[in-house]
Amino acid sequence: MRSTFMGLETSKRGLYTQQSALYTTGHNISNANTIGYSRQRVNMQATQGYPGTGINAPMTQGHIGTGVEAGSIQRVRDQFIDRQFRQETTKLGYWGAKTDAISQMEDIMAEPSEYGLNKAFDDFYKSLQDISTNSQNASARKVALERAAHLADSFNYINSQLKEVQGNLKNEINVETDAINSILRQLAEINDQIQKVEPNGYLPNDLYDERDNLIDKLSGYLPIEIDYTKSGGNALGIAEGSVVIKLKGSGTTLVQGNKVAQLQAQGKNLDNDGNIDGNTNGPFSKDLTKFQAFTGFGVSNLVSVQDAKKLDPTNDFNGQISVDDLAIGGGKMISLAHSYGYEKNGSTLPQGDYPNSLQELSKLADAFVYAFNKIHSAGYQLNSNQHGTDFFEIDADGKVTVKITDPSQIAASTEPNEEGNGKLAIILSNLKTTSLSDLTEIKLNNTAGDKVILEFAKDNVADLEGATTQSFYQGLVGKIGVNGSEADKMAYNAATIQLTVSNNRASVSSVSLDEEMTNMIMFQQAYNASARMVTVVDETLDKIINGMGRVGI
Fold first, then answer.
1. What is the value of pTM for the model shown?
2. Which of 250, 287, 289, 472 is found 20 to 30 A from 230 (Cα to Cα)?
3. How far is 109 from 135, CA to CA, in rounded Å?
């Protein structure tokens, strides 16, 4: 005979299970605005029916249900969408950092404008033309010196500002490396907590969310691969286990269980000629003015979180993640390296947006100063038989200065002691439209009608590749503009796709207050119905106990 009190147990189970569902609904509602929170649900399942199996099992008219239980409380998450989101986050991390770096470069160049290097060239050449029409005019000569000083200042301003931003990028590489290490340590700590909870048969959903948020952040810095190691003990089948994080491509393990590796940004110094010193490779210097070509990351062995904070910067980073390893999947760190400057196989000079622009600017300054000084030295100073001297000079740091200080020292004449001769000033001003790379000689007419030939050393101007000074600079600005436009478009595309994937993820995992309110009413009514069933069973038992077997009383 079945138990008369069986209905009470069935209804009690209903009460407890609906109560758990209500609590979970309240938890969802409370975290509706929590970033990264995944809504949770109670997986309800019917308890084992009555009677059970066995020789002595009673015979009944059917298999009677015994109620419901909360099998588990699971968060709603789609790992496929998570992987998509992280892939797009890695791309956005690369192009977002690229956009910022090139945008700063465009602001420094400020072309076209009334204050850029191109305008400084125009003004200087125009002042030389003014001298050619009136070579004895002191005012015109003073203006030419001022315009020359402005041209030199324009070169120096662009050079110094590019190096300053480059130093900021170097600092950002160091700062973001520290941020990556912090994320890796936090992931290892969360893994440790999860490994302690799951074997007891629980699902630490909030820890899962916290871990996924950190993985999302990490994917913006580095291209990573995610895997999971199941926990032992009484862990549920749907328990996620501890995460294993590897660098995509190289397969370097960064996090495994409660063990973590740490990264160290590394670079090679430059020699006195600006070439990469192949014998020097170590931690990135904190000195923002000291340039180092980024070579990748040093990697420590897998250690505990406590030991990770005590690693020796000079001895414990023996592994290596190269620039090529980082470039496989993108991310912010390789983007910073591509902007700041890095070592590329087979190249003796640093490669990257800023090193390339500085090298191109240096080529332009060297070729212009050489050609201008060469021509200027062939002429004669005002009403004098003295040849001109070097007009500009460049020091070891690439700083351009005007060497002459007296306006009368401007050699505008092709003849000594010839008043009013401004022919050389015309030749100097014609450098605006002259291809320095094709320039081999300058012919100066003298009074006898002969030709004085001024020969050029091709090696000093060949780097301009057939361009004039201004067209070479315009090409440099145009290249930066094209790269900036590409970065903007790619960043926009990556952000758009990431937003689409994020919306898809939100449709699966985020909390909908309308849905939770509906669930709350549904679970409340189910709770009320289970409570009513307790009352019905109680009344039934009361009738059986107190109302039956009373005949004759």
1. 0.88
2. 250
3. 33
